[in-house]
Design goal:
The structure is a single chain. By secondary structure, the chain is of the alpha+beta class. The protein folds into 3 domains: 53 residues; 82 residues, DNA polymerase, domain 1, CATH 1.10.150; 190 residues, Orthogonal Bundle (hpI Integrase, Chain A), CATH 1.10.443. Strands 1-2-3-4 form a 4-stranded antiparallel β-sheet, covered by helices on one side. It has a 3-stranded antiparallel β-sheet with strand order 5-6-9, with no helix packed on it. The longest helix is centred in the C-terminal third of the chain and has 21 residues. The relative contact order is 0.07.
Length: 381
C-alpha cells in the first residue's frame, strides 16, 4: 500500500505473519516502525500516522518506555504534595509499570488499557488478589496525568487514557455516628487524652491533618471560632506543615459552646503540664494538640491511637475520619444547605459535598417531606 499526501506519504511492507513495516515521510525525513496485527489494523495505524503529519501533531518516534517516562515525570513533578507524590509512585510501581512499563511510550494504545484494567480487577493486588475499582481508577488517573505531561511536551501525539474510562465505582454509603452515638462516645471518652480532639473533630468537621496543625493563635475563644490555615502532612521524609489545597480550604469555623468549654479545659491542662516540664507558657505558635514536649502529633499516630481507644472502650467501630462525616451528617440533618456545609468542611465546591453526602441529603429531604405531610394533615401523624 502506498499513500501520498501534501505533507507526507507512506507505505506498508509485509515482514511476516501479522507483522508489518510502516513507512512514512515528514518533509524530507523518512520514518518507519514495526507493527504487529492484521493488515487492516496496520493500514489504520498508517492512516493515523499520516493524519498526525497533516494535522501538525506528528511526534518523532522514540524508544522511551512508559516505565522510563513515568519515573522521570514523577521525579520532575513539582505540583504535587509529598504525600500525593508518594502515593503516585506507589501506584506507578505496583499497578502501572509491571503491566505496561515495557511498552514504548508512543506505542501505547487504548486496547492495552482495557486489558490492563481487567487484569488489575482480577489479580492486580498483593499475592494476586483482586483490586477494587476505586484503586484501579486511582492508577488510571496517575497514568492519565502522566500522559498529559507527555502530550504537553509533544512527546506523544495524544493521550490514549482519554479514550478509555476507568472502571465504574459503586459508591458506598459513608460511615458516621448517629446523634445518640456521638453523645455516648464523648461521654465515654471524657478524661481521655483524645477527648478534646474528638470533640473538636465532631464539633467542626475538621480534617485530621488540620487538627494536628492547629495552633493556639488560630483559636479565638471570645468569637468562638477557629481559623484553618494549614495542615500537617506525614510522609516517608517526615512531617511538614502545608497550606490547604484550595482557596476554600482556608476558612473560619464557628465553635459550638460545648467545644469552647472543652478547649478551654484542655488549654488549662496543657498549661499545667508545660509548667511541670519547664516549658513555660504556650505562645500563639504552639500547637493545640502536641506531644508532651511540644512536638507535632503525627496524623498517622492519631489514627492508630484512635483505634486503640475504640477497642479499649468498645466504641462504635468507625475511623477517626468518620468523626468528620458525623459532623457533616449532623449539619445536613439540622437543615443546613449544601453551600453552608461545603464551606464549613472546606470542600473545593458544593458539588463535592453533594457527591460525598448524597445519602444524607436524601434522608434530609425525606424528613422534610414527612414534616410537610404532617402540616397538610393538620398536625396529625
Amino acid at each position: 500500500m502506498t499513500r501520498k499526501r501534501d505533507h507526507g506519504d507512506g507505505g506498508i511492507d509485509a515482514r511476516g505473519p501479522d507483522c508489518w513495516r510502516l513507512r512514512w515521510r515528514v518533509a524530507s525525513k523518512r520514518h518507519s516502525k514495526t507493527f504487529h496485527g492484521t493488515k487492516k489494523a496496520a493500514q489504520a495505524e498508517l492512516r493515523r500516522l499520516l493524519k498526525t503529519v497533516d494535522d501538525g501533531l506528528h511526534v518523532e518516534p522514540a524508544r522511551t518506555t512508559l516505565a522510563e517516562y513515568l519515573r522521570g515525570w514523577l521525579d520532575s513533578e513539582k505540583d504535587l504534595s509529598l504525600k500525593t507524590l508518594e502515593r503516585y509512585r506507589q501506584l506507578a510501581e505496583q499497578q502501572i509499570i509491571p503491566y505496561l512499563g515495557a511498552t514504548v511510550l508512543q506505542n501505547l494504545r487504548p486496547a492495552q488499557l482495557k486489558v490492563w484494567h481487567a487484569t488489575l480487577l482480577r489479580s492486580g493486588g498483593a499475592t494476586g488478589r483482586p483490586l477494587s475499582a476505586r484503586t484501579v481508577g486511582h492508577a488510571h488517573r496517575v497514568l492519565h496525568r502522566g500522559l498529559e505531561g507527555a502530550l504537553s511536551l509533544e512527546i506523544v501525539g495524544r493521550n490514549v487514557a482519554h479514550a478509555i474510562r476507568p472502571p465504574k465505582v459503586t459508591e458506598k454509603e459513608i460511615t458516621s455516628l448517629t446523634a445518640e452515638q456521638v453523645t455516648d462516645v464523648l461521654s465515654r471518652l471524657e478524661g481521655h487524652t483524645l477527648f478534646p480532639i474528638a470533640a473538636l473533630a465532631l464539633g467542626t468537621g475538621m480534617r485530621r491533618g488540620e487538627i494536628c496543625a492547629l495552633a493556639w493563635g488560630a483559636v479565638d475563644f471570645d468569637a468562638a471560632t477557629v481559623r484553618v490555615e494549614r495542615s500537617l502532612e506525614e510522609t516517608a521524609a517526615g512531617l511538614r506543615f502545608k497550606a490547604p489545597k484550595t482557596r476554600r480550604g482556608h476558612r473560619i469555623i464557628s465553635l459550638p459552646g460545648r467545644v469552647v468549654e472543652v478547649l478551654r479545659a484542655h488549654q488549662r491542662a496543657q498549661a499545667e503540664q508545660r509548667l511541670l516540664l519547664g516549658l513555660g507558657r504556650a505562645t500563639h505558635d504552639d500547637l493545640v494538640f502536641a506531644r508532651p514536649e511540644g512536638s507535632p502529633y503525627p496524623p498517622d499516630t492519631l489514627s492508630r491511637d484512635w483505634w486503640r481507644v475504640v477497642n479499649a472502650l468498645d466504641l462504635p467501630r468507625v475511623t477517626f475520619h468518620s468523626l468528620r462525616h458525623s459532623s457533616a451528617s449532623a449539619l445536613i440533618a439540622a437543615g443546613l444547605d449544601v453551600g453552608a456545609v461545603s464551606r464549613r468542611l472546606g470542600h473545593a465546591d458544593p458539588a463535592t459535598t453533594l457527591r460525598v453526602y448524597t445519602h444524607a441529603f436524601n434522608r434530609s429531604e425525606n424528613a422534610a417531606a414527612d414534616a410537610i405531610e404532617r402540616v397538610l394533615r393538620g398536625g396529625k401523624p
